[in-house]
Amino acid sequence: MLNPAEEIVNIWLQDHFKYFITSNLVVPKKTRLNKKGRFLGGGRGKEVDFLATNGKGKYFWIEVSVSPNPRLPGGADKSRDIFVDTVTKKFAQEKEKWIKNNFRIKRIEKWFVYSHKLFSFFRNAPQEEGLYIKRLGEKKIKAISFAEVLDNVYNETNFFGYDSPRQYIFLFKKMGYGRKD
């Protein structure tokens, strides 16, 4: 796992929620036959960022997409719909079916961790973010701002581990950076 945002979310899931997690699950691609009878497809397949459980029968599928410099594909007006469609594709039926079959899970809660900077391009950023959260909620996806994740991690993380995200946050604190900086 080389994505710093995913590493921080990993710590957040473990320290804040006390969840057991597995990360970067690869859903194998299905093969198919071409006209000549040869197999096509296969390969690496799609990836599930995190699969977590509280150990009491609740399961969570978490996808993370955090960019320090997000861009608006197609401008502000078209981006509203593109944002939601992009997230929906991350929670593809093929992945969900694979998770449920391979882990024998009946119900799984979907969470999406997004960059709050995504809405900095809009004049009415708080309203746009609220609309985004509402649209994802309609698709049964809980939207969580990375700012919220950072707040929790910043306040609650123990720094006894040697993994890099804990050390980054420890250094931020030592250097005097506040959560809102």
Short description:
By secondary structure, the protein is of the alpha/beta class.
Uncertain segments: none
Main sheet attributes: strand count, strand direction, barrel closure: 5 strands, mixed
Please report which band the strand proportion falls in: under 5%, 5-15%, 15-25%, 25-35%, 35-45% or over 45%. Answer: 15-25%
Question: Helix and strand succession?
Answer: HEEEEEHHEHEHH
The strands making up the biggest β-sheet line up spatially as 1-4-5-6-7
Class based on secondary structure composition and strand pairing: alpha/beta
**Tally of individual helices:** 6
Distance between the termini: 26 Å
**What is the general shape?**
globular
Kindly report the average pLDDT value.
Answer: 84
Query: Percentage of helical residues?
Result: 40-55%
Q: Radius of gyration in whole Å, from Cα? A: 18 Å
Overall number of strands: 7
Give a verbal description of the structure:
The mean pLDDT is 84. The longest helix is centred in the middle third of the chain and has 16 residues, at 75-90. 42% of the residues lie in helices and 22% in strands. Strands 1-4-5-6-7 form a five-stranded mixed β-sheet, sandwiched between helices. A two-stranded antiparallel ribbon has the order 2-3. The protein has 181 residues and is an alpha/beta fold.
